[in-house]
Amino acid sequence: MKKMEQAAQLIAQNNSLFCCPICHGEVRVEKTSVICTSQHQFDLAKKGYINFYTKSSPKDYDKQLFEARYQVIQSGMYDDVHQKIAEIIDKLDYPVANILDLGCGEGSHLQKITQQLNRSSTGIGMDIAKDGILTAAKYHQGLIWTVADLAQSPFQSEKFDILLNILSPANYQEFKRLLHTDGHLIKVVPRSNYLQEIREQVMEEKQQSYTNAEVLEHFKQHFDNLEIHTIQYQWKVPEDVLKDLWFMTPLTWRKEMEQPIERITIDLDIIIAQK
Ligand SMILES: C[S@@+](CC[C@H](N)C(=O)[O-])C[C@H]1O[C@@H](n2cnc3c(N)ncnc32)[C@H](O)[C@@H]1O
Ligand SMILES: [Zn+2]
What we know:
Elements: H1 3-13, E1 27-30, E2 33-36, E3 41-43, E4 50-51, H2 63-74, H3 79-90, E5 98-102, H4 108-116, E6 122-127, H5 130-139, E7 144-147, E8 160-166, H6 172-178, E9 179-190, H7 196-202, H8 205-208, H9 213-222, E10 226-236, H10 242-247, E11 263-274
Bound molecules: S-adenosylmethionine and zinc ion.
């Protein structure tokens, strides 16, 4: 089956999760489009994703960055993070039928997490960057890939068991709307030493320090009952992904690597919350 037909089939099977991002009406799949009750139409792409975003994507993250992220994530840089998140999901005491990754980029986090789960689930990835979703649809089968804006998302209210939001901007009002009563939000945020070996090479010393206190504060204003798991380790960088490591972040834009990085620091908080 062609990628576009596969995507159409997956969306049709799960169409109760989707709504029109313009009028919030129900949608149905018709051949190669998703159409709402007011006839707003969104086309499936041959490459196997659906575009719900009617403007042109912002250019902060481009194809090269998403390809680099794909290589690095597939090489295992975040494996411990994926394992921890899969463990958290597997321990939940309700059936997890669906998982939505908001700001999924090139999709490897969603792919690796859903693959490790002891239960099967429908995985949907959403990102405003078309290049991210193109890369996701290129590499990962069996998941639904959507271009959309978190501020105008194409999903029904209170349908999602798990929301992932990994190293991406949040929209807490929207997260609350999307989560069903028992659902969990799992957000990953950087801590002060995250990617410090890169930051040391590209930033002035005084810019290098970072704290996620403000992000946590903002989170707590919307979700008060939260649990935090801190994950810290140094990942040995395989020589063949060193270049990709450098290009996986906009921090290094137009800058040369001054010295090779042997080990890179992962220092992250995984925050879990319910409505
Ligand atoms: C640092 S990247 C992280 C991507 C991916 N989660 C990862 O860790 O590889 C941040 C992502 O958030 C996406 N993003 C930013 N604003 C967004 C919005 N309003 N709606 C959806 N995605 C957004 C960007 O396009 C980008 O892919
Ligand atoms: Zn509509």
